[in-house]
Amino acid sequence: MFLRRNSSDQHAFSNSDIMGPSPLNQKIECSWSTFLKRVLIRWQEELMGLHRDGWYDRHSCIDKWCMVFVYLPLIQHDIGAFQLWWNNHKIRHQRQVWLPIGAAPNDIYAFPHLYGGHQCGFTVSDRDLAEVAREKTLNYEQSARVPQDFYNEATNFTATNHLTLEISTAEECYIQLRRHFMLERSALQSSIYV
Hints:
By secondary structure, the protein is mostly helical. The protein is built from 6 helices and no strands.
């Protein structure tokens, strides 16, 4: 809506986005369903398992920072891999729906004229792109960043202990990193009272 705020056609500003259920948009519903099955469920189960087993306390900054440090890059990688796969998979024929078939979404987007479509894009100013980039950066930094000293120590700890941050080792890395910071915090608190 921000990028369409100054347009004057029928899809300007608030008309550029439809809120609510999308029963007529089966493609997006299919992509969300596939994303849920291929990516989201695995991460939900692993993260909920850490909470259930007592390894994650949502009130603990250390737990949150360890979670972001270990899991955020892995989840982002998984999402990127899914996006690449989805945008390059071949669309199969669907009954009673006219859509280009036998082509990938990326191809249909790049060459709509080859599939009976037309380019629906519009020019976006550099100023608007910079504003969107600034907003995205601010939101990311506010919600997902860990303190620099924590990041440096966590990086050093994982390197020193030969921990590789991979999907198959994420839980073990998280638990070891959490233990390290919890022990460090206990040692600091003990030295204060001595």
